[in-house]
């Protein structure tokens, strides 16, 4: 009986092997076969993510990164921070207890590219914003082991000495608009001044930041230096906005899974 | 080496060099003050070096050899030597980054030497530098032998090999300067990506044209895998790297995708870089060099078919298992998990096919360290694909994800499978290509084998322990319902494992250095011997391309 059940499969297998024996003489048949076989999975899994509306939640309060925060994000990428820090709290209860409400898709809606990460050599940073003071971040980045003795994080003291390059920010924001981030013309044109204004609250440029990005935007000396805008300003401004672009994750979240 | 090109070919090579030099010059001028300018200088220097080689040959007389009676192995030889160079660089970087996690002061406080910047130098160095060059070199060798035909072209194999290495150098130097897209294993910026597409198209055309010349009705299994490697890597590379540069005179670009779609695209790429770069291509190596060295035919043709199409079809779906419990819709996670588990069937079919091929040749496995490299590689392939399917199960992934278990899994595959099959292939092909009797020292091969095996086992066990310990500590609650350990507590618990991991890596690196030395000495000092019947022929009887079934 076992034989009987298996025999159609055996015949199919036999047929397949014979067909293959003939088609494998043609390199273009193999080429097409490979492209089709390998194409299906990716198409079925990726294409619907762009068309199914429920994939990304609605969050009317979602705001964009300011030019200074975006510059900080670019530094975060440049230094490879994502290699050790994730920005994706999973729906597991222990992660919610440790880091905060689990991450929603909408929170990285404008993240080109996303920085969800794949390894936590250091802790998750998705809800880092406003957890520590600016001063804590600066001291921690300058010498991590002075703040957390057991840390294995590299030090980034050099960020404090490097003046932030802001002239390319209008171009960068324009590129982000090209890939779908809704920056306005005004925001793009003033990106350079806004970046410097956000880190120098006592200058005229600071007013433009609140006007274009909302009154809730933090405008302050992130790195504690009053006279110049450094890469440290940008990175700390970015770290302080992590998890703060929208409150969607804090509203009515079901409990995490055990 | 360029003396074997005809006058017309030398001119074409020279023209390509000039065009590259102009491109480098334009990049250097336009990208002043940006890392792109430094990359322009690198392109310019690289074009200059190749130009010198070509110019040295340009006045020489035309080659007199009859090209139909021999294979063209110069690019293969160069590729193998370059692969060994990258092995030492990439693994050396690996030991350094591993040591930084155990002793963070080993970073020495330069901006370029932080973990975040040199880690991609390690990953790209071993995957693309070592693995990629080995794949290109062995594919040239295998496609010629299994087709019984010479390479279709003499400039294009060099273009592919050297162009690919230019990509690797631009990538690695870029990471040190902070040029990265932050997409794991796809870090290089837009101009490097465009360049790789050009190189890859030439590679595909070369492959297809060589196959079209074959004196053998069937295309051998190894070539299916190499073909899948070339084709699918091209698709993955192009889609995942779609981006808009902030400016044409700077390196920075922004990915076309964002958030959840970007995450899915990235891990569709990331997982299939494993599938089609680190698996398909190396299975091509396995399917040629293992039966050849064992002098046994492949155990089952049908299993080869089953596993090949299984791998090509199933693997693509598996990427979403990197995103369990995240903001990715659950239906995609479930699909990823399901296909990852099913993937075990074709994976074990390949591993089993390889091991069964050794039936009747186990005494050779005992005596011959080269064949033992390949045997152990097949075993590690089986083990790490089992582990991969296991870790793709949601419940397991909740523990393993974000921990060192993932790192251990990757290295079981990369060291145990990819590197061992590569070293086995190198040891079996080097004497043939340089017309030597054997490798310079079989004792060094033996030493390399045991160092590599010990290094892999120490590494993988250390990472299993650290990963599982950390995963469990993260989720441990006290009786009062609060988390028992702070993140720092779990980090402190990792220290002994990080030390052990660095030691395992150092052993593996030592083995690779021995390999490089052994190959160098073989080229320089081993006694000569003309290989028998290693030339194109239309007759199956004089030389079967691979051992034929009895």
TrEMBL record, chain A:
It comes from Mameliella alba. InterPro entries: Cyt_c-like_dom, Cyt_c-like_dom_sf, Cyt_c_oxidase_monohaem-su/FixO. Residues 193-212 have a biased composition (Basic and acidic residues). Keywords: Heme, Iron, Membrane, Metal-binding, Transmembrane, Transmembrane helix. Residues 187-212 are annotated as: Disordered. Coiled coil: none annotated. One of its GO terms (molecular function) is metal ion binding. The chain crosses the membrane at residues 28-50. Residues 67-199 form the Cytochrome c domain. Pfam families: FixO. This is Cytochrome c oxidase subunit CcoO.
From TrEMBL, chain B:
Heme b 1; low-spin binds at residues 122, 411. It comes from the Bacteria. It is a multi-pass membrane protein. One of its GO terms (biological process) is respiratory electron transport chain. The chain crosses the membrane at residues 12-30, 36-58, 79-103, 123-143, 155-178, 190-212, 224-248, 268-289, 301-318, 338-361, 373-394, 414-434, 446-464, 498-520. Binds 1 copper ion per subunit, denoted as copper B. Pathway: Energy metabolism; oxidative phosphorylation. It catalyses: 4 Fe(II)-[cytochrome c] + O2 + 8 H(+)(in) = 4 Fe(III)-[cytochrome c] + 2 H2O + 4 H(+)(out). Belongs to the heme-copper respiratory oxidase family. This is cytochrome-c oxidase. It comes from Mameliella alba.
């Amino acid at each position: 009986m076992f034989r009987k059940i298996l025999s159609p499969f055996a015949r199919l297998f036999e047929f397949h092997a014979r067909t293959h024996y003939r088609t494998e003489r043609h390199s273009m048949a193999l080429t097409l076969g490979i492209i089709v076989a390998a194409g299906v999975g990716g198409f079925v899994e990726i294409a619907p993510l762009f068309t199914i509306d429920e994939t990304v939640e609605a969050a009317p309060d979602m705001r964009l990164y300011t030019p200074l925060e975006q510059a900080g994000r670019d530094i975060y990428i440049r230094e490879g921070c994502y290699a050790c820090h994730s920005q994706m709290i999973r729906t597991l209860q222990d992660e919610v207890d440790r880091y905060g409400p689990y991450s929603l898709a909408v929170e990285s809606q404008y993240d080109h590219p996303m920085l969800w990460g794949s390894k936590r050599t250091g802790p998750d940073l998705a809800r880092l914003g406003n957890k520590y003071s600016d001063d804590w971040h600066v001291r921690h980045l300058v010498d991590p082991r002075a703040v957390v003795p057991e840390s294995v994080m590299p030090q980034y003291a050099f960020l404090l000495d490097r003046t932030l390059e802001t002239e390319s920010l209008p171009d960068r924001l324009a590129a982000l608009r090209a890939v779908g981030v809704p920056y306005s013309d005004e925001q793009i044109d003033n990106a350079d001044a806004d970046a410097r204004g956000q880190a120098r609250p006592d200058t005229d440029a600071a007013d433009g930041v609140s006007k274009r990005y909302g009154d809730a935007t933090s405008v302050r000396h992130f790195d504690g230096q009053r006279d110049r805008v450094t890469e440290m300003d940008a990175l700390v401004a970015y770290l302080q906005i992590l998890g703060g672009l929208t409150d969607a994750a804090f509203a009515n979240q079901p409990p995490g899974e055990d | 080496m360029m003396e074997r090109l005809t006058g017309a070919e030398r001119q074409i090579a020279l023209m390509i060099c000039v065009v590259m030099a102009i491109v480098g010059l334009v990049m250097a001028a336009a990208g002043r003050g940006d890392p792109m300018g430094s990359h322009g200088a690198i392109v310019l220097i690289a074009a200059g070096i190749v130009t010198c080689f070509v110019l040295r040959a340009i006045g020489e007389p035309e080659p007199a050899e009859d090209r139909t009676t021999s294979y063209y192995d110069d690019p293969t030889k160069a590729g193998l030597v370059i692969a060994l160079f990258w092995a030492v660089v990439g693994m050396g970087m690996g030991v350094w980054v591993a040591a930084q996690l155990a002793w963070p002061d080993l970073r020495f406080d330069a901006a370029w030497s932080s973990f975040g910047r040199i880690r991609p130098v390690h990953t790209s160095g071993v995957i693309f530098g070592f693995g990629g060059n080995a794949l290109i070199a062995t594919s040239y060798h295998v496609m010629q032998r299994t087709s019984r035909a010479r390479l279709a072209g003499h400039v294009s194999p060099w273009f592919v090999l050297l162009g690919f290495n230019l990509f690797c150098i631009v990538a690695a130097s870029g990471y040190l300067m902070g040029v990265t897209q932050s997409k794991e294993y796809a870090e290089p910026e837009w101009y490097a990506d465009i360049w790789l597409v050009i190189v890859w198209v030439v590679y595909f055309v070369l492959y297809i044209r060589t196959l079209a010349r074959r004196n053998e009705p069937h295309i051998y299994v190894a070539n299916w895998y190499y073909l899948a490697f070339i084709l699918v890597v091209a698709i993955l590379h192009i889609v995942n790297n779609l981006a808009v540069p902030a400016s044409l005179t700077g390196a920075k670009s922004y990915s076309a995708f964002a958030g959840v779609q970007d995450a899915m695209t990235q891990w569709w790429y990331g997982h299939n870089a494993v599938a089609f770069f680190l698996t398909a291509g190396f299975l091509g190596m396995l399917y040629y060099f293992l039966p050849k060295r064992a002098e046994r035919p492949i155990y089952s043709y049908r299993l080869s078919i089953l596993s090949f199409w299984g791998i090509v079809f199933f693997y693509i779906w598996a990427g979403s298992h990197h995103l369990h419990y995240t903001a990715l819709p659950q239906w995609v996670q479930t699909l990823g998990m399901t296909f990852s588990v099913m993937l075990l069937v074709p994976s074990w079919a390949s591993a089993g096919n390889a091991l069964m091929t050794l039936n009747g040749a186990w005494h050779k496995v005992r005596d011959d360290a080269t064949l033992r490299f390949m045997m152990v590689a097949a075993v590690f392939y089986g083990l790490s694909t089992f582990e991969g399917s296991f870790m793709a199960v949601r419940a397991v992934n909740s523990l393993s994800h974000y921990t060192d278990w993932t790192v251990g899994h990757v290295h079981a595959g990369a060291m145990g499978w990819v590197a061992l099959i590569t070293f086995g292939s190198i040891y079996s092909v080097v004497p043939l290509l340089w017309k030597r009797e054997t490798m310079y020292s079989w004792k060094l091969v033996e030493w390399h084998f045991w160092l590599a095996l010990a290094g892999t086992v120490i590494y993988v066990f250390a990472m299993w322990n650290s990963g599982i310990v950390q995963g469990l500590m993260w989720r441990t609650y006290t009786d009062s319902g609060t988390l028992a350990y702070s993140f720092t507590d779990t980090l402190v618990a990792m220290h002994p494992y990080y030390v052990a991991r660095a030691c395992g890596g150092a052993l593996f690196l030592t083995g690779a250095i021995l390999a490089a030395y052994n190959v160098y000495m073989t080229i320089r000092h081993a006694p000569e011997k003309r290989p028998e019947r290693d030339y194109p022929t239309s007759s199956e009887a004089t030389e079967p391309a691979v051992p034929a079934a009895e």
